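re: ur question from yesterday

yeah so i grabbed the chain u mentioned. its 90 aa long if i counted rite. heres the sequnce exactly as i have it in my notes:
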Amino acid sequence: MTSSAEKLLESLKASPFGRTREEVIRMLVGFGFTVEHGAKHWKVYHPTYHQIHTTFIPNQSKIKPFYVRQSIGCVMHLKTLLEIQDDHDV
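ran it thru and got these structure tokens back, copy pasting raw so excuse formatting
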């Protein structure tokens, strides 16, 4: 994960309103998620941690806060899994 992805995560958490699809996708990709374009939605998943639920982002430029929060939840789940893995590796 990049520091810019971390900064964007904090920004999205602070204010999920009026956000664009591009911001959310940039954050997710920064945390290692794969994003695939579909007809009406963008499919998001993590290639290593399959237990993270897939999220879908609509094809609209501005997206509803629900989708922003859902994407933040996926990143937080990933961070929890990485912390658990680090604890087991020590």
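noticed a couple things. Strands lie at 34-37, 41-45, 55-58. also The first helix runs from residue 3 to 14.
anyway ttyl
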